[in-house]
């Protein structure tokens, strides 16, 4: 009897169980990501033309709250096979953080769309070619800020302006996070250019897990220095 009880207590704590729990969480989160980003499928069918960028940005709007919910669900995941509820965590994160995530994501999408349109029409605008460098740097910096802000608004309860300030501050306070996220952005861009947006979308839960892993230092700093 004691042996059986001990076996039950150890159930769900071994390496194989933890791996199985992680795979289960990733699969469920991936399915929910697909369901909550269905409008984005329209964007994958569009030609890669500058004129389609505003429509692509509009179709991509639901991806922000969905990614935020995925971050929340994966952050609060359990490794015990007897208590796996990633769907409940995803939906709870979606309800709690959809508004804040949409603000962050929508601002970034709008800004990146403007930059991309200007870069594509640089010759027609009469601007010198060297403007590509500062505009690209601004786009990269805004993207890294957005990733910080999305993680913060997904896992903590701050006002929108405080999220924006913290995200900017942590670009320099946690440079390792910024570097890791920059590498993640390069991987995503490489996937889009080599394949398609759909290929990247199919790895949404893995990308969310990678972003969460990159942001461990950021999360620790926010929890220690800015929460009670």
Shape: globular
Q: Largest sheet at a glance?
A: none
Radius of gyration: 20 Å
Instruction: Report strand %.
Output: under 5%
Number of domains: 1
Distance between the termini: 45 Å
In terms of structural class, how would the helical and strand content be classed?
mainly alpha
Which series of helices and strands comes N to C?
A: HHHHHHHHHHHHH
**Poorly predicted regions:** 1-11
Describe the structure.
The chain has one domain (12-226). Residues 1-11 have low confidence and may be disordered. Helix content is 79%, strand content 0%. Helix 2 packs antiparallel against helix 5 (63-75) and helix 4 runs antiparallel to helix 6. The protein starts with a helix and ends with a helix. It has 13 helices and no strands. The chain is mainly alpha-helical and 228 residues long.
Label this structure with key terms.
single chain; 228 residues; mainly alpha; 13 helices
Short description:
This protein is mainly alpha-helical and about 230 residues long. It has 13 helices and no strands.
């Amino acid at each position: 009897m004691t042996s059986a009880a001990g076996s039950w207590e150890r159930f769900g704590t071994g390496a194989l169980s933890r791996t199985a729990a992680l795979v289960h969480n990733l699969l469920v989160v991936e399915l929910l990501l697909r369901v909550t980003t269905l409008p984005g499928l329209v964007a994958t069918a569009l030609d890669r033309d500058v004129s389609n960028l505003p429509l692509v940005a509009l179709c991509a709007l639901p991806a922000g709250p969905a990614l935020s919910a995925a971050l929340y669900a994966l952050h609060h995941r359990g490794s015990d096979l007897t208590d796996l509820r990633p769907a409940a965590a995803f939906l709870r994160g979606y309800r709690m953080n959809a508004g804040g995530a949409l603000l962050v994501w929508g601002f970034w999408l709008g800004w990146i769309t403007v930059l991309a349109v200007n870069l594509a029409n640089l010759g027609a605008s009469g601007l010198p070619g060297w403007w590509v460098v500062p505009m690209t740097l601004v786009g990269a910096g805004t993207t890294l800020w957005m990733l910080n802000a999305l993680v913060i608004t997904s896992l903590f309860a701050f006002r929108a302006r405080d999220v924006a300030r913290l995200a900017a501050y942590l670009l320099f306070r946690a440079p390792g996070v910024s570097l890791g996220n920059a590498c993640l952005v390069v991987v995503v861009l490489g996937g889009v250019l080599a394949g398609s947006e759909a290929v990247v979308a199919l790895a949404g839960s893995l990308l969310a897990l990678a972003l969460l892993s990159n942001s461990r230092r950021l999360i620790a700093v926010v929890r220690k220095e800015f929460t009670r």
